[in-house]
Sequence to fold (383 residues):
Amino acid sequence: MREVNLQSKLPGIGTSIFTVMSKMAVDYNAINLAQGFPDFNCSDELIELVNHYQKKGYNQYAPMGGVQKLREQISKKIKKLYGRKYDVENEITVTAGATQAIYTAITTVVQTGDEVIIIEPAYDSYVPGVKASGGIPIYVKLNPEDYSYNWEAIRNSISDKTKLIIINSPHNPTGSLITEDDIKQLEALIKNTNIFTISDEVYEHIIFDGEKHISLAESDELAKRTFLISSFGKTFHTTGWKMGYCAAPDNLMKEFRKMHQFIVFSANTPIQYAYADYLQDETHYNSLGDFYGKKRDTFRARIKNSNFKLMPCSGTYFQLLDYSDVSKLNDMKFSEYLAKEKKIAAIPNSPFYDRGDTNKIIRICFAKRDEVLLKAADILSRI
Ligand code: PMP
Ligand code: GLN
Fold:
């Protein structure tokens, strides 16, 4: 066929590392500790609720902003956990996963030439959204020792073109958390500016050791400029259902919805009804920290005498491993070796950086059945 030349809007951006490594897991028949998803099923009750609403005929378009009773539950949850009331009608939108919410929020605020502060390591969907919207990513690294925020570096990266800062806590891939002091620093930094924030809080309920998740919604200064984003996929073991939400002040949400209605219009109807019922029992999400904390500990205990160094992990279902005592290969090559030769698929850390990362670090996902975690830890311990 005759080729028609298409100028890429995203030159230099290839296939997501999660897709690459999941394929490698299949190709090499390796245990998939790479892409972040559970290898166990979600609750029967939730599946029955979806079936129930499908059979009752809830199979046509949901309202553009989302099913009313789900928005009510989201508003109630945010108010109870973070003390801020988002108006059900005008300040909450149900989205097709957090990925769509993030893209929509980015493209709502970013115009050609705007600068966006990207904190590295960064989840892979942020930068393409910025670039596709004509924005310019400005990269600032977390402190490499403990993945805490480097506020001086962030301050130095702000210019009169800065439009947006993207924050992610609990943080993928490092498992680090934003602190009260970070919130104060961020408030001081963007007070009296027109800078917006996107707060990616998809792991809000996966937090360990008695720590409490701090939402940007808790701060008056930040909430008024924040698109707060979360995902039911992480919380209810349903990553394949692709449903999340965005909460934001009405003036921001009004613009967000202008985009949302033409990107997706609305999200899956019966699943929204099912989540609305399921969310009424708070234990379904309040027990998540204990549940995944045990998995983290199971994996860490089994691998602690190995040649891998365990990095701290305060939240998310990811654990970083430093393999500098194991191999001199770079992280891409090492991950390929692990998948091919040792039958363990992991995620190299460098794709979370614009310019890669020379540290020898891989990420594993511990949202897996205990027997799988133990088997994988035993294989890794023998390397
Ligand atoms: N943000 C982060 C930090 C994530 O890790 C993920 C996916 N694991 C997402 C957003 C996307 O969430 P969803 O699957 O709901 O689109
Ligand atoms: N968020 C998941 C991870 O970090 C992957 C989601 C995806 O594949 N886009 O592994």
About this structure: The two ends are 49 Å apart (CA to CA).
